[in-house]
């Protein structure tokens, strides 16, 4: 008799909930590479951050669902291809299938030469919106993982201070627990308006949440 291990049960449960997830189905129907698109969509529809003509920097962009969403926002008729009114510069450690009109940089956001590449892509201009869905590979050690997550958020805040327009907005993913309170405090020090948002499309079970900072102080 085959003994079913706990991890197999967990995988099966995950697979079932994934297959039946309305956002997974919607992503397939709408042509998004990941259900993550709906998290940014919800945040954007609430706060109206991405406007025609905007320059948007997408940090941790792979496989590309957020960039696809931004691309459609900047299309005169919401199309996934064709004319684009604005700029999208996207960055990830991992390779990403091209998205028409999106300038993609492969590299580690924590490294100086990669930051220099981003800076060069901005061509002396500044971003209207910076979005970061970056999440580090977790080690399982709570303290180490919290520090890795915090570092990515802190670097995104620092990037916004130097490369975002004063009236711009930064969206970051972070997690409850760990350094959450310190990161909210950093946002309050840096931005005029700070909004914590847990989109409906972010799974209830996940401690994942988002912070939006609007207007640099
Ligand atoms: C949840 S995924 C992003 C999904 C993406 N927003 C989308 O809609 O398709 C997180 C991404 O962050 C990237 N990432 C993590 N640490 C990074 C770093 N230091 N520099 C660049 N990308 C990083 C990972 O490679 C991963 O692709």
Please explain how this structure is put together.
There is one protein chain. This protein is α/β, with parallel strands linked by helices and 217 residues long. Helix content is 40%, strand content 23%. It is built from seven helices and seven strands; from the N terminus they run αααβαββαβαβαββ. It has helices at residues 6-19, 22-30, 37-47, 65-73, 112-122, 142-163, 180-190, and strands spanning 55-59, 87-92, 102-106, 127-132, 164-175, 191-197, 208-216. The protein has a seven-stranded mixed sheet with strand order 3-2-1-4-5-7-6, sandwiched between helices. It binds S-adenosylmethionine (SAM). S-adenosylmethionine (SAM) is lined by residues 33-34, 36-37, 60-66, 91-94, 108-110, 133-136.
Topology summary:
Blueprint: H1 6-19, H2 22-30, H3 37-47, E1 55-59, H4 65-73, E2 87-92, E3 102-106, H5 112-122, E4 127-132, H6 142-163, E5 164-175, H7 180-190, E6 191-197, E7 208-216
Helix pairs in contact: 3-4, 6-7
S-adenosylmethionine is lined by residues 33-34, 36-37, 60-66, 91-94, 108-110, 133-136.
């Amino acid at each position: 008799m085959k003994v079913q291990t706990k991890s197999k049960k967990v995988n099966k449960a995950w697979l079932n909930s994934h297959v039946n997830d309305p956002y997974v189905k919607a992503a397939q129907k709408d042509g998004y590479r990941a259900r993550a698109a709906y998290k940014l969509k919800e945040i954007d529809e609430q706060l109206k951050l991405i406007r025609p003509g905007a320059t948007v920097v997408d940090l941790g962009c792979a496989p590309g669902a957020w960039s696809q969403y931004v691309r459609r926002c900047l299309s005169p008729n919401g199309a996934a291809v064709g004319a684009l009114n604005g700029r999208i510069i996207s960055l990830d450690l991992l390779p990403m299938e091209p998205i028409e009109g999106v300038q993609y940089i492969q590299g580690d956001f924590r490294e100086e030469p990669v930051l220099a590449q981003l800076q060069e892509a901005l061509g002396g201009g500044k971003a209207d919106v910076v979005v970061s869905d970056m999440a580090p590979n977790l080690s399982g050690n709570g303290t180490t993982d919290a520090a890795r997550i915090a570092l990515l958020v802190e670097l995104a805040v620092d990037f916004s201070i130097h490369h975002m327009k004063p009236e711009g907005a930064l969206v970051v993913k972070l997690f409850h627990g760990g350094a959450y309170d310190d990161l909210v405090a950093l946002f309050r020090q840096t931005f005029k308006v700070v909004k914590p948002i847990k989109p409906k499309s972010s799974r209830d079970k996940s401690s994942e949440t988002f912070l939006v900072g609007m207007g640099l102080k």
